[in-house]
Design brief:
Chain lengths: ~325, ~325
């Protein structure tokens, strides 16, 4: 018996990695001392010595079952952006800037085309942020994954000055909530979405959406890095940031609020992307469940003093959706 | 329709995380400023400022299909050690010490018992190395994973002084290869192993092995961190290290050698754990395939000057298995 007979195809994997090599290496910054092929990626961190008090920030995420939808329509080109952008938002929610990224790719069978496409997408997404794709792991696991299914996860490491860490400790009663719009469901709720749109033609134009389901549902998770950078460079004082992912505002906004304080969010103050009412109607999903599963158009919520919120609105596209109140809990008005 | 109907069970996941919370938090060192529940883990890196030239090292790995064997016999307690120990070996192969770890856990259905068991195992493995389990992601993906299957991957970040980075550049002709023994197949070749032992009673005592297949096959990936530390503390000069994982010596030893040099390995100079000849006979696996898939008892190979190799042998259990030669390529004699 040989390894190939057990369903592991070493050659195809090597071929796809060879194809993606140039794109991965194009993400390398001068800090990368060792990348592809090393037992671990090496990232020169001399710059951290110049910081007053460096704090590393690390986050691991996956894109969930959005991969299945992408594979169904044969277009994985956005999935790398989904993953990398999701990750950078988790970092900036703490005030941090990204340093590097590592991916984890696994499937029942490593088809060369799909693997090369995913690696290219990851490399492009890293390149767009100016950070290296420092390493990763690609695993073929017959018996773990369903036929044709893939999983895509990754880890981003960043850094922040200790005194610049954002978070609940900074938040005060009366702070405003400034929401930056999402581009759609981002990477959350896709198990429900797939159930709702099952049997529908994903490529057909849907007038209500102004585009096809494929376009509305595969649009990548938006990165708020450019907006965050602009606010920071203009000295806008941000207290805390909530990245609205799985669990919606109910699970994510509280992570940006201190014990004892809550928030009120006023419906109708921000544009809800048409994909959400469309999914709600099609799937007969209760309103409160919609807010529990989806971001509903609230991609990122900045918590900041009133005067800073007004300034921020002149710098980025954002909507004042509510405020911090003395009663704990989130209330949707 | 609700999220639960799409096969996603938010409550069970929350319950398992609650059960594992204390064990995860027990891994925290004073450097952990934010862990569980944050958008990203925060790790105070003031210590890096005291280094001459800090270089971060990061590696992502998975345990592969060893999970399926563990689930089959209902014992996932070693899988966290498999993952964490694999990762620390990849770091020390470059001379680095670990700082923190993040995990990625995914399954078709997050059964509370299994999830709590895996998190406990990960926490214990991190605790054993003295590093925090700084964060992670746990995802339920019906449609991606096979019924009852799990995947377990993770990322370790460490640091090394630039002048202390090990690697091919340091290796010289005549250097010796000192192998530290493996504890078995570690985390490689399990798709083949599962095919070979299919239908066998994994719990039955096997005289040839001196233990059951369960014991021989689920023994965790060995961490060479204590040995590495002892050698380092005693000032043993190591040139390069190869961690022998997927692809065996053929794929991994070259990663520790410079262009233009090769290595000779002399069979019979190290003890081959009995599980390997057992699997070879049972699966009628060609000898060269055995060396291509398994570590064959060579868990970690240190490349170091002859005099240092002799000193190292007095400090750790290791076997001189070969040497660096002027002809490129690996030769098994």
């Amino acid at each position: 018996m040989r390894y190939e007979e057990a369903g592991v195809h070493i050659a195809q994997k090597a071929e796809a990695l060879k194809r993606a090599k140039a794109q991965v290496e194009a993400t390398y910054t001068p800090e990368v001392l060792r990348g592809l092929g090393a037992f671990g990626g090496l990232f020169d961190s001399m710059a951290l010595k110049g910081m007053r008090h460096p704090v590393l920030v690390a986050t691991t995420d996956g894109v969930g079952t959005k991969t299945l939808l992408a594979l169904e329509v044969g277009d994985v080109s956005g999935l790398g952006f989904d993953l990398v952008n999701h990750s950078v938002n988790d970092l900036l929610a703490q005030g941090a800037r990204p340093l590097f990224f590592l991916d984890y790719l696994a499937a029942s069978r490593l088809e060369e085309e799909v693997l090369a496409g995913l690696l290219a997408s990851l490399a492009q997404a890293c390149k767009a942020l100016g950070i290296p794709l420092l390493g990763g792991e690609t695993a073929e696991m017959p018996g773990v994954y369903r036929e044709g299914a893939w999983d895509l996860a990754g880890t981003m490491v960043g850094v922040v000055e200790r005194e610049g860490i954002l978070g609940p400790e900074r938040v005060r009663e009366g702070d405003l909530l400034l929401a930056l719009p999402s581009s759609g469901p981002h990477t959350n709720g896709y198990s429900l979405i797939r159930k709702v749109v099952a049997g529908h033609d994903l490529l057909a134009f849907v007038p209500e959406l102004g585009e096809s389901l494929k376009e509305a549902l595969l649009r990548p998770h938006r990165a708020y890095w450019p907006e965050f950078l602009r606010l920071q460079e203009n000295g806008v004082e941000i207290h805390a940031i909530a990245h609205i992912t799985g669990g919606g505002i109910w699970e994510n906004l509280p992570r940006a609020l201190p014990e004892g304080l809550g928030a009120e969010i006023q419906r109708g103050t921000w544009p809800v992307p048409p994909i959400f009412p469309y999914l709600q109607r099609l799937g007969q999903i209760p309103e409160e469940e919609m807010f529990r599963v989806f971001n509903m158009g609230l991609g990122l919520i900045l918590v900041l003093p009133e005067a800073e919120a007004r300034r921020a609105q002149e710098l980025v596209e954002g909507f004042l959706v509510g405020r911090v109140v003395p009663e704990p809990g989130i209330r949707l008005l």
